[in-house]
User: Fold this.
Amino acid sequence: MNIAGLAIGITCASLIFLWVQDEVTFDHNFPKRDYLYRVMENQHVNGVSYTLGTSPEPLSNTIKAEIPGIKNAMRKSWNMSELFVLGDKSINADGAYADSSVFSMLQLPFVYGSPVNAFKETNSVVISETLSKKFFGDSDPVGKIFKLNANQNYSVDGVFTVTGVFKDLPANSSFQFQWLSSFDLWVTKNFWLKGQWGNNITENYAEVQPSANIDAINKKLHGYIATKATGNTNQLFMFPMNDWNLHNNFVDGKEEGGKIRYVKLFSTIAWIILLIACINFMNLSTARSEQRAKEVGVRKVMGAGKSKLIIQFIGESLMMSFIAVVISIGFLYLLLPAFNGLVEKNLPIDIFNPAHLGFLIGIGFITGLIAGSYPAFYLSSFNPVYVLKGIKIKTGPGVNFIRKGLVVSQFVVSIVLIIITIIIYQQVNHIKSRDLGYNNNNLIDLNLQGKIKENFNVVKNDLVATGAVENASLNEFLAMQIYQSNDNFKWSGKDPNERVVISSNLVSPGYIKTMGMHLLAGRDFSNVPLVDTNNVIINQALAKKMGRAGQIGSIVTVDKYQLRVVGIVNNTIFNNMYGDAAPQMLICNLGIANNLTIRIKQNADISQAIEKIGAVIKKDNPGYPFEYTFLDEEFNKLFKTESLVGKLASVFAVLAVFISCLGLFGLSAYTAGRRIKEIGIRKVLGASVSGLVNLLSIDFLKLVALSCLLAFPIAWWAMSKWLQDYQYRIEIHWWVFAISGALAILIALATISFQAIKAALTNPVKSLRSE
Assistant:
């Protein structure tokens, strides 16, 4: 039993550390990671700083030339989907447009071709090894011709030549792209970007000299934009690649937390579970060692010295410990596929990796050494005369105190994990069940490709004619993530010193009905889009911010345009799912729509509806694959980290309780064994089975009750601190602690009762026959 508990503990800790290793080695595939930085920008609005990962397009070229210490720089677009067409085969692939310096900065390993001349020709594209194999198998595709035909707002379509194939990027890489093409080519199409210091839509990266002073570079970057665009107060700073994955959360312009919190949390949980398993192993080893007192007496009489006995006990303990390690390796291979599914990763096991091997050997050695030290030094000091005469060796009060302390510590951890699991589950469900202001059920989204936008009315009518679709609309952004915002809007009575950031979404008529939003005043956009070219619909938050001007008929100006408010809709939650509703404006414009959103009828069969929708899209947009996402699934992805934390906490809470109960089971068996003659005498004197069960159980239940008293304040403090990071959060209720404590006591009672009942039912004749 002690071997099984230790094996389970080592397995749990190993699985967590595999996940932790994957997170802390993010971007380690890039040799220059210590010298690569992303240029971030802080924008200040009404005393609050917002941090962006994008910055002006001209930045890379100017900082490379003007700021000492910067060795290289590159511009990169956001990732976008491009349709690769070769003959009758077409595949959508995500990629980006970047400067040729991307190859020297990221040191991408090429399978075919050379990075030196990759972008020498205008319409050149380099592709990933996987994308190459999908089209060309194992042959060299350099020089082959692709047609890129996404026909989207920002993509560059046309005939492209493959100039290289790079090895696939690992999953734990911040950069994920299947193709790269020239940024200059992209700017040629999107000419409005060129030289614009007020447009933050480009990702800029820098490589610094090994001897560069980052503080000095940041000092120059701080007010750099103001030297190029008078009056611009936005500030730049360098964000190192080594922090991109774990320290990517910014609050009021300063780095604060990020995924590192969860890495620390689960590292702590791993060590605690391992500690619980080790405590069990030591507890059970030391408890059972006292039953070998006569063996020690006989061996001493036969001439065994103290040192020989010490070596024997420690050797036996080490052997059992390493047996547990070997068993845990088997468990690892058995459980890793399920764990990978849980964490949505593909973590490999490499037993012969020096770090992994050292961890397993170290755990086996330390646990075995500590567990064997007590019986080795304590039992080897017994006087053989007393032992062989049957004089009972009294266990010192310190030993009993330590043993009880170890049991309490195990259950404290288990109860804390139970409480953490419940509260995380409550918080995630709390936000998922929040009223978003629209209905994201039965909504699917398609990236606009081909001629869907041009033929939207035909496509919409065909979709509705299937009988499975209620409505459809075009929009620039999904309702939950709106990336376009501006603070240049003005209206009558607006304080000229106040910056009001308004998020805007360009939509088609019917968007409000498709999304399930509610028009509170005024009218919806006309089915003839040109009628509402200069009209907008605002939400409640913006209407409130505008004060008396926030009503139907008011005029909002931006640059040279005058926009009339024709409708007011309810607030919707977007971007920050934990925050309050922000000001939003809907603009009737189909020109730069990126998405087709379709609402399936409430009672329709989803699989049949998707089949019908696919048939319409393929008929009305031939040559393009039918690819879609469900909006409720995209919404759930926003809480991927919190959901993962909840799942892992629940799994390891169960395992921690199980390991603790293994120890409790073993100790209760040991206690019952030690008191077997006392139980026999009590039965002879008339004690009932229930009375004996209570006698054997009460001491252990007191320990579990004490564990509850210690665990409750620890869990309350930890989860209160965790919840502070969320503006929209639950309250911690007393019943969470009551349920967790009751659950722990019930589990402990069930564990102890088995051994207590077994001992109470033992025939007293058997236990007293030698007396």
